[in-house]
Amino acid sequence: MKVRRSDRLIDMTRYLLERPHQLVSLTFFSERYESAKSSISEDLTILKRTFRTCGTGLLETVPGAAGGARFIPYITKNEANQFVNEMITALSEESRFLPGGYVYMSDLLGRPNVLRQVGRIVATQYLHETVDAVMTVATKGIPIAQGVAESLNVPFVIVRHDSQITEGSTVSVNYVSGSSQRIEKMALSTRSLKPGSRVLIVDDFMKGGGTIGGMQSLVKEFNSTVVGVAVFAEGAFEGKSKVPDYTSILKIDATTDHVEVTPGNFGDQIFTTDCMSELKK
Questions:
Q1: Subunit comment for this entry (predicted)?
Q2: More exposed terminus of the chain, fewer Cβ within 10 Å: N or C?
């Protein structure tokens, strides 16, 4: 049954948004809506312009018999700054202070809307990079990794401090904790990560960078490459960080009686756009 263009546009939008970075052929859409490929191409042109001008993402079209359309999500500067300001307000409450210079933020990392925005911000930083997997360490980094992996449409793998029998054989490394300077151990199942993968490491919080440094070593044990490092928040740290290059969304400096939260170093890949003014052109 032939579908009206308005209905077709709505369903195509939903389909593409649910499958970021996945190439969908024109033939698939043509058969799905019983419409000519020329009509589908016109629809994709409309979606491409709207996605771009509204800051939803890029709609990449691939020509040829095996071509189609691929939705690549990103976030605009205005939307990212608004989200970061909301997080700064929420995390600046003195009641969130924890001993050791940490700040309680588990409640925020349990909110789907927060994880979705974090995923979009991190995905925008690596818009032009090929990422095969997202890596994090159990336990608080898992929701962040899931949000980032969803935006990139790639698997995420979980590194554990103690291996479990259900994971089969594992690869383990020892590392020095950046803040406590203790020797720690982390392990990853050999089936979790394919050799030669390009890995994005994410975590919820970083101080000295020891844990992330351990994950970087673990990636090398799998003969894979670290594409980048991203954290939700970085804490104040006296000394040299074990991770010189990374993306942070927030910076947190917690003293005994004060919590100061400021924007992180994200922003190089964030786009500036005004949806309504662009659409009126």
A1: Homodimer.
A2: N
